[in-house]
Design brief:
The complex is a heterodimer of chains A (122) and B (107). Chain A has 122 residues and is mainly β. Helix content of chain A is 0%, strand content 50%. Chain A has strands spanning 3-7, 10-12, 18-25, 34-39, 45-51, 58-60, 68-73, 78-83, 92-99, 109-112, 116-120. In chain A, strands 2, 4, 5, 6, 9, 10 and 11 form a 7-stranded mixed sheet that branches. Chain A has a 4-stranded antiparallel sheet with strand order 1-3-8-7, with no helix packed on it. Chain B is an all-beta fold and 107 residues long. Chain B is built from no helices and 11 strands. In chain B, strands 2, 4, 5, 6, 9, 10 and 11 form a 7-stranded mixed sheet that branches. Chain B is globular and about 35 Å long. The N and C termini of chain B lie far apart (36 Å). The chains are: A mainly beta (122), B mainly beta (107). The interface between A and B is medium-sized, with 22 and 25 residues.
Chain lengths: 122, 107
Amino acid sequence: QVQLVESGGGVVQPGRSLRLSCAASGFTFSSYGMHWVRQAPGKGLEWVAVIWYDGSNKYYADSVKGRFTISRDNSKNTLYLQMNSLRAEDTAVYYCARGKRVFAESNAFDIWGQGTMVTVSS
Amino acid sequence: AIRITQSPSSLSASTGDRVTITCRASQGISSYLAWYQQKPGKAPKLLIYAASTLQSGVPSRFSGSGSGTDFTLTISCLQSEDFATYYCQQYYSYPSTFGQGTKLEIK
């Protein structure tokens, strides 16, 4: 079945780095734009980043620009989020999500992973 | 960035009621708006995209309308499983942005 599974979350000190992964299965990963969305404890949803289906274009939220990098390996059906210079305010559940339409630049998100928790604390 | 103002932030209703949630965009976004439902500890679920198109498998008691800057999500005849938090999202331009959420509670 169509599935996204995140991994890589954990507890990290401020200023350190962490890399999240999102393994896709059940669909042609290389045909879809992919996103990261986060949710701080008790708060709403915040879009983080997008990468085009072929990796040719990427956009970021202002809150993470210059610190986070989204990437993908279509041969491994895996999406990544490299998070550097982490701050306490980056503490959140991080979800990966699939853009609904193939090869489209903008999309609603029709498939979501279960999320992975990142806690930034000393 | 386009700001999305969602209201109300919370709403109490009873099973069988009809409820409406609204979202207003700070600039025109055509019909590039989606609605999601989220239950505690779970990932969001896509309900409606393109402002008014029902996602496959979503019950027909959910409906969406609007274009430009003003949008609504209506749930007719609330069921017990509908009590959750709802978010709207614009995907007209990046950064994509979400509304603040509406927590729908049982009266």
